[in-house]
Design goal:
Elements: E1 4-7, H1 17-30, H2 38-44, H3 49-55, H4 66-77, H5 89-98, E2 102-110, H6 111-120, E3 129-133, H7 145-156, E4 163-167, H8 170-179, E5 182-186, H9 193-198, E6 203-205, H10 210-218
Parallel strand pairs: 1-2, 1-4, 2-3, 4-5, 5-6
């Protein structure tokens, strides 16, 4: 039975794919690279994000400059309030709350920025924790979602086999498989459907509301 749902943030809770592409292109242009269309961006993106940006022509000598990460986040945060949550997110969170299923955010974004968005959308009460970066500079230094969640499991003694992870990237499915979680891949985010299928999730969905059916199925 699932007693914890782990949510990716960008492209999963928040429908911000278009904004993220715009902010990334702003960053790419600022540091000497060539911007991409949304289609090409989604087709090519990979982690660590710094390697991806260098491949788009950004000057690698500037990647450790704090201004590099700040360029993205200043552009993004000035516009993030206009993004909506993915359809069905609030419905599932209310379902979880009613059925005593905890929720947390596991993200490569900045925790304070996520918490601000949760507050302004009246969603903070539904999340037990936000596991993310402490500042925007850290976001350009690689992904440590695995280590962050591993520490959470150790501190809380949460059983990963009773945990479901949902995200719009193969990375999220990979994390779930590493810990023995139920994995749900969400389409129409940052990655094309064929890449999500190739990551072999337990479920592939296009609407977050479908999680209710999955949670009820897992409880049987």
């Amino acid at each position: 039975m699932i007693d914890l749902v782990v949510w990716d943030w960008n492209g999963t809770v928040l429908a911000d794919t278009e904004l993220t592409v715009e902010a990334s292109n702003h960053q790419i242009k600022t540091f000497g690279g060539n911007p991409l269309t949304r289609k090409e961006f989604i087709k090519r993106i990979y982690f660590p994000i710094t390697d991806f940006l260098v491949d788009q022509g950004c000057d690698p000598k500037l990647l450790n400059n704090p201004a590099f990460a700040k360029t993205f986040h200043q552009y993004y945060e000035a516009r993030a309030d206009k993004c909506r949550t993915r359809k069905g997110v609030r419905e599932v969170l209310k379902y979880n709350n009613t059925h005593k299923i905890d929720s947390l955010v596991l993200s490569n974004h900045v925790s304070s920025e996520i918490e601000r968005q949760l507050d302004r959308r009246d969603l903070s009460e539904y999340f037990n924790a936000v596991l993310a970066h402490d500042n925007c500079v850290e976001t350009s230094q690689g992904n440590n979602k695995v280590h962050r969640f591993e520490r959470y499991l150790s501190e809380t003694r949460q059983d990963p086999h009773n945990t479901l992870i949902i995200g719009d990237a193969p990375e999220d499915v990979g994390i779930g498989k590493e810990f023995g979680m139920v994995t749900v891949a969400l389409t129409d985010g940052f990655y094309p459907t064929h890449q999500l299928k190739a990551s072999n999730p337990d479920y592939l969905i296009s609407n977050v509301s479908r999680l209710v059916d999955i949670l009820e199925e897992q409880s049987q």
